[in-house]
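Suppose you are handed only these lines of text.
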Amino acid sequence: MVGFSRRTFLKGTASAALLASASGARANESADVIVLGAGLAGLSTALQLTEAGASVLLLEAKERPGGRVQTLFDLPGRPEAGGTQLSSNYRRFVGLAERFDIPLVEDSPMQRDGPPELYIALRGETILPDAWAGHALNPFAGPLAGLPPWALPFAAMGRGNPLPEVASWRDPAFAEWDVPVSDHLGWTSEQLRLGFGINPGYGASAYNQSALMWFQILKAIAEPGGRLLTVENGNQRVPDAMAAELGDRVRFGVAARSIASGPEGVEVRTMDGSRYRADRAVITLPTSALRTVDIDPAPPILQQRGIRSLPYNRVVRAYFVPERRFWEEDGLPPSIWSDSYAGRVFALRGGGGTEITMMQSFITGRAAELLDRMPEAQAMALVQAEIERIRPAARGALRPAAYVSWGSDPYAGGAYACWAPGQITAFADALSAPHDRLIFAGEHTAIRARGIEGALESADRAVETVL
Ligand SMILES: Cc1cc2nc3c(=O)[nH]c(=O)nc-3n(C[C@H](O)[C@H](O)[C@H](O)COP(=O)(O)OP(=O)(O)OC[C@H]3O[C@@H](n4cnc5c(N)ncnc54)[C@H](O)[C@@H]3O)c2cc1C
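From them, the structure of the protein bound to flavin-adenine dinucleotide can be written out as follows.
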């Protein structure tokens, strides 16, 4: 790692000057660098800068580290609420797990062998995977007819990927692909609804997501040799260990409300009225949360457009403890892919065991949009009623355990960024450019990797910029 030049940062008497800045008000604390957000991007940035010799303050709005990586440690099987699947190609994340001696295990939420684990519940019909290819509700012919709905986006967008390598999605030469998935595929509306409208992995429909984003996703996940992994006993153990290493440099329950950057340095004001000053700030908030924080001076126009308009996927996860093995009563596979407000209902075998410990509804797209407009108790009751409607054997067998909405979380505002058509070309570069003394990081600023590994990639770039 590049050595950290202490002289470039304000220490000792210099930080005393920072403490009493031009505004006249005294800061509660100061450091060389303030990092905002203790998700993986912020934790990795803070750890690396600390190791390089900088004094760092990491301000986190919530009372726990990890951000969009969250394990529900108190529930049977310790299910994940946020980032779930890792790849053995996640070099940085795997390195952190090794550093903190935290084992990674094969991810096997479903039984690999034996009878099917998942069936389709569509328009009131119960369809086993084997019966799907020739089913009257299947709008496809040819090879796509043989694929279950959840495999359609990957198969369709995987054909004819124009990107020579993953970073090319940011090359203006590929701007012609920054168009709606619907235009690119030319499918019928029923085909688009099935592939991109029901239980979408990204966005809420094929009309509002960029084909270029899909090409990047597929290039990023198509790296050879990737095995699906998860952290033994919970993904959050890794950010927990990173935060423990940082000790009292991390401040929990401290939500930034404004960030000012000027010749004197950076001043962050928080919701509780405190002020923190530093020479630079690294901001790792998703733009969906950053939208509520005032930045002064305002970033350039394209960067602002990005911060204000980059869409985030809505994801709701509702957890139920099965009190009976109702799947043995109706003889259907335990998990369901449905077009109901219960979305996909996964039977989870937690803690590496073979017993089903939890039923989890994973709800995205329009269904999640509706749930996010309801009070939580009402939304949870609707999800349960929907499961019982499509699967009568589940009546009286589900004990509600937890409800997590990422769209309603004020410090997340969604699960992950989903680029709308034209946005990559318009502002992907501008969004992650440094502005005055502010450096932007986080999953949405990554170029090569996505999700968890993307957050860590963005931290490496932020650290390089600071140093
Ligand atoms: C349901 C779900 C499923 C996912 N599945 C996967 C998956 O299978 N594989 C994968 O690789 N990725 C997955 N992801 C994505 C992955 O979890 C994220 O991309 C990654 O964790 C983002 O890290 P980050 O550090 O960029 O942002 P975050 O983790 O969001 O960190 C930002 C931090 O900033 C804090 N914050 C926000 N506002 C303020 C404020 N005003 N002041 C101070 N702090 C603030 C937040 O509380 C948060 O801790 C999933 C995410 C979700 C939600």
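What can we learn from it? Residues 1-17 have pLDDT under 50 and may be disordered. The chain has three domains: 6-67+232-310+421-466, 107-138+314-405, 139-221.
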